[in-house]
Amino acid sequence: MNLSRRDLKLMFELDSNYRQPYSRIGRKVRMSQQLVSYNIKSLTSRGILLGNFPLIDYSRFGYMGFRVYFKVNYADRQKFNEMVEKMKRHPSITMVMDCEGRYDLMLVFAVRNPSSFNKTLRELISDNPEQLKNCMILTTVVEHHFLKKYLTGRKAEGDIVIGGDRKIIGVDETDRKILKALTGGRKSIMEIAGFSGSNPKTVMSRLRKLECGVINGYRMMINNEAIGISTNKILIKYHNISVEREDGLRRFCRRNPNVTEFIKTFGEWDLELTVETRTKEEFRKLYLTLREGFEDIIQDFDNFSIFRIHKKQTLPEEFFSG
Predict the structure, then answer these.
(1) Which of 140, 223, 226, 288 is most buried, by CB atoms within 10 Å?
(2) pTM for this structure?
(3) Sequence-distant (≥ 6) Cβ neighbours of residue 277 within 8 angstroms
(4) What is the rounded average pLDDT of the residues 13-18?
C-alpha cells in the first residue's frame, strides 16, 4: 500500500507518543490539526492503525515475563484460529503472535513467579493436547523498545526500558483503573476520567506520577503487513560476552533504523531482536552485518517471521481484577 511521506511521518509521531496533542503533531509533520485528525481516521479505517498501547513496566508490580515459542500441530486453520482467540482472552497472556518458519505461535506471559508460570503453561497445554506439543521457553530479563526510524529515516535514538530489576510499588484502585483505561485504548484525559470515575484533574495528577517509572511510553499498533513491512525475530546465543561488548551491540541495534526491540532473555537464547524491513535484502544485510560485526560474542543465530500480532499489551488482565 502506497503511503505519502507525510503519512509515514504522522505514523512515526503517533508511535513515538500517541498521546501528544494533534496540534504538536501537526507542527512536526506540517499538517493542520484538522488534517492530522482526518488522516488518523483514514489510516484507521484502512486497517493501517490498529490501536494503541502503553508501555507499562510490569516489573514494578512484581510480574515476570516468560516467552513461549510453539511448533503447533493443527489439522486446519479454523481450529488454530479458535485456539488463538482463547489465548487472547487468557488473563496471564499479554502477547499473542502468529509466526512462520521454525515456530507457529509465540506467547508472552506476565506472572508473579516461575511456579505460577509453570502451572499456567501446563494448564494451557493440557487444554490443547493435540496442538501444543513442542515449545521453547525463555525468561525475559529486560526489554528495550526503540523508535521505528525506518518510517522516516530519522536518526532518533529513543530507548524505552521495561522489566529488569525494579523496585516494586503499590497502586490504589484509581491508579489501577487509569492503567486499565490506557491498556484498553483510551488516550484522552476525558476518556480516561470517564472510564475510571475520577475527575480530569485527578487523572492528570496521577498520570504525571505514573509516568515517572511506571508508564514509560505510549506506542501505536501499526499493521506492518498492510504497508509492506516484514517483521522478523532474530534469536542470538552469546559466547565470550562482556558488558562492554553487549552494550556495543545494544547501541548498534538502537541506532539501526530497522531494529525495534532488543530483549535480553535467559535460557536457550540470550537475546531476541525484533527487526522490521521493507525487503528481504534489507533483512539479510542487517543479519550479515550482525554476524560480521559481532562474531566475537555471537555463538549462534536463529530467525523466524511474525505473520500477525493478535494481542499486545504489557500488563496481564489479572492485574486489573485486583
Answers:
(1) 140
(2) 0.94
(3) 150, 229, 230, 232, 258, 283, 286
(4) 95
